[in-house]
Amino acid sequence: MPIDQIIRHAAVTDMTNTRLRTAQERRADIQANAAELGIDDAFIDELVETFYGRIRADATLGPIFENAIGDTWAPHLATMKDFWASVALNAGRYSGKPVPAHMKHPQIERAHFAIWLGLFRQTLEDISPSAQTVAYFMERAERIAASLQLALFGVPGLPPRTTA
C-alpha cells in the first residue's frame, strides 16, 4: 500500500475518528451540511438583503453604515453576499480584508457589535428554516465579531500594544 493511502487509512480509523480530507472533500462536506440546513445562495441573498435593510433602519448603526457606505450599497451588498457564501458554504468568493476595512471607521465602538449581532440573530430567526440554521450562522457571526473586536479594541484590561 502506498504511504499516502496508509496515512489516510490510519487517520480515518484511529481512536479519535480524525479523517484527513482534501480541500475539495472538505468543501463538499461543508456544502452538504449547509444544504441540509437550507443554506444556499438564495438564502444568503435574502439574509444579506433583509439584515442590511434592518441595519440601515437602525437608529444607532444606520448612520455609521451610511457614513461608511454612502451611495455604494449595491457593491457592498454583493461583497457581503460573497463573504457570507464563503463563510457558510466555503464558496471561496470573498478575498477581502475585513479588519483594515473596519479600522478605517473610528466611530465604531465595542457596543455596536452587540447591536449588530442582535439584528443578525433576529433576521436569522425571522427567515431561517430551522433553529439549526440560526445556530450555524450565529456561531460564525459571533466568532467574526469577537475577532474584529480584538483587532479594533485589543484585549479588555490590557494596555494597547506599542511599536518600537
Which SSEs are present, and which pair or pack?
Layout: H1 3-13, H2 23-36, H3 41-57, H4 61-69, H5 73-89, H6 98-103, H7 110-127, H8 131-153
Helix pairs in contact: 3-4, 3-5, 3-7, 7-8
What would your notes on this structure say?
There is one protein chain. The protein is mostly helical and 164 residues long. Helix content is 70%, strand content 0%. It is built from 8 helices and no strands. It has helices at residues 3-13, 23-36, 41-57, 61-69, 73-89, 98-103, 110-127, 131-153. Helix 3 crosses helix 4 (61-69) and helix 3 (41-57) crosses helix 7 (110-127). The protein is globular, with a radius of gyration of 19 Å. Residues 4-13 have low confidence and may be disordered.
Order of helices and strands: HHHHHHHH
What average pLDDT do the residues reach? 89
Give the N-to-C terminal Cα separation: 54 Å
- How many β-strands, per DSSP? 0
Major β-sheet annotation: none
Number of helices: 8
Q: What sort of overall outline do the alpha carbons produce when their principal axes are compared?
A: globular
Structural class: mainly alpha
Q: What's the Cα radius of gyration?
A: 19 Å
Helix content: over 70%
Binned strand content: under 5%
* Uncertain stretches: 4-13
